[in-house]
Design a protein that fits this description.
By secondary structure, this protein is an alpha/beta fold. The chain has 2 domains: 4-73 and 189-254 and 359-406, FAD/NAD(P)-binding domain; 129-182 and 258-356, D-Amino Acid Oxidase, Chain A, domain 2 (2-Layer Sandwich). Helix content is 33%, strand content 21%.
Length: 460
């Protein structure tokens, strides 16, 4: 059996016995068959069962609940959407952009409500989120984000902070400004996923673990196909995120991009006196290559970011969870942000794939005639978005027309990714370009112009 606790600090400290639940043993008939026991699949099952406890719901998972991104992410429960508010306005108009933003804020409240209602010990800490400008070259990005929010009438809960105000919250080198959002919350992601799985079971759902789905069929007889039997259903739900693209029918719908994380030992009280960070705010800078930080409940610093290279043919493999050069870079960045920690010990390093659609736009879809629903494509913003999408799928499958089912993610079709080797060439060009733009900006103090081809490709 796999050592599931070794896949992330979160799974290691989930407080759960990670022994897998029983496998599927023979074909079964249910009302709803869900592929994937991560956030999307579990939230969908949860809301369907809350709405109709008589439903027969089966969740089929290739490993254990919370094994993928749901048990390995940065612990950010945050109202950010994978597509920026500015681009949402361009694509769908001002009112729709506002509606999505408000739905995401409400989603953080909803997750908090469910955690309390179900008694999930998820180490929830609602300290808000700080987007830092580290250096003058990042100031425009932060200030322009606030201007966009103001133009949309959404700036009220945010605060634009100067350097002194930002460092009152957390002392990070080179900070010149910050945008503070009070809605963000730090969460133990694996405890949330594992607790949600137990809530689904209490409501009458069944979770089969170590049961990989190898194919599926839609139409008159929808079913998930596994080596140990079929799960026949009225509706199947495809909720495998990055892993789903390994199924032949879903190839090129998403690409798996690896996000990696390092974690320090618990810091001393004297270290925290120098750093501040008393409210456990979520923290990130405005780098194009992405970074994200969290203060854990036991007083560690989590530092995550991108940088691991995309692999040909959208490869997903356990060996890719660790990439020495990227993990070393993240350790160096931790010390660069917090020089007082130059002697700190790093205890954990891990990673995993997230699902990226070709146009960055996540999707919820439902075809009643085919008996199939699908959600995903969060591009690393899935902790909150998956809850929203689980509620949308529950509405769609139940036949309820709600404001959520009118969102433009519903039945959105992202273009498929290019075939190889063009996919590899394009993604690697963009990855290297983002890193180069960050290095140039840090060296020269000049912000990227926004006119560079890489910036246009990566705009979202």
């Amino acid at each position: 059996m796999k050592d599931y606790a070794s896949y992330s600090f979160w799974l290691e400290t989930s407080g759960d016995d990670l022994t897998p639940r029983p496998r599927l043993d023979g074909s079964i008939d249910v009302d709803i068959a869900v592929m994937g026991a991560g956030y999307t699949g579990l939230w969908t099952a949860y809301y369907l069962l809350k709405r109709d406890p008589s439903l027969r719901v089966a969740v089929v998972e290739r490993e254990i609940a919370g094994f993928g991104a749901s048990g390995r992410n940065g612990g950010w429960c945050y109202p950010g959407f994978p597509v920026s508010i500015g681009l949402l306005r361009e694509r769908f108009g001002t009112e729709t952009a506002r509606t999505i933003s408000r739905a995401m804020f409400e989603t953080v409240d909803e997750i908090e409500r469910v955690i309390a209602h179900e008694g999930i010990d998820a180490q929830w800490a609602r300290g808000g989120a700080l987007r830092l400008a580290r250096g003058e070259h990042q100031r425009a990005s932060v200030e322009n984000a606030y201007k966009t929010l103001t133009a949309l009438g959404l700036a009220e809960p945010y605060e634009l902070l100067d350097a002194a105000q930002a460092t009152e919250r957390v002392r990070v080198t080179d900070t010149v400004a910050a945008l503070y959002n009070p809605a963000g919350a730090s969460v133990h992601p694996a405890r949330l996923a594992r607790g949600l799985a137990r809530a689904v079971e209490r409501l009458g759902g069944t979770i089969y673990e170590q049961t990989p789905v190898v194919d599926y069929e839609t139409g008159r007889s929808p079913r998930l196909i596994t080596a140990s039997g079929d799960v026949r259903a009225k509706t199947i739900v495809l909720a495998g995120e990055a892993y789903a693209q390994q199924l032949p029918k879903l190839r090129r719908t998403l690409v798996p991009m690896y996000s990696l994380i390092v974690l320090t030992e618990p810091l001393s009280e004297s270290d925290w006196e120098q750093i501040g960070w008393r409210n456990r705010e979520l923290v990130a800078s405005s780098r194009m290559s992405v970074d994200y930080l969290n203060r854990t409940a036991d007083g560690r610093i989590l530092f995550g970011g991108r940088g691991a290279p995309y692999r040909m043919h959208s490869l997903i493999d356990d060996s890719l969870d660790r990439h020495g050069p990227t993990h070393d870079m993240l350790r160096r960045m931790t010390i660069d942000w917090f020089p007082m920690l130059e002697d700190v010990r790093f205890t954990h390093a891990w990673g995993g794939p997230l699902g990226m659609p070709r146009d960055w736009m996540p999707t919820t879809s439902y075809d009643a005639a085919a008996g199939v629903a699908r959600a995903g494509g969060y591009t690393g913003q899935g902790v909150a978005t998956a809850n929203l999408f689980g509620r949308i799928l529950a509405d769609l499958i139940s036949g309820h027309v709600t404001p959520l089912t009118q969102l433009p993610t519903v039945n959105h079709r992202s273009p498929r990714w290019e075939p190889e080797p063009f996919r590899w060439l394009g993604i690697r060009y963009a990855q290297e370009g983002f890193a180069r733009l960050d290095r140039n900006a840090e060296r020269t103090g000049q912000a990227p112009t926004g006119r560079n081809l890489v910036e246009r490709i990566g705009r979202h």
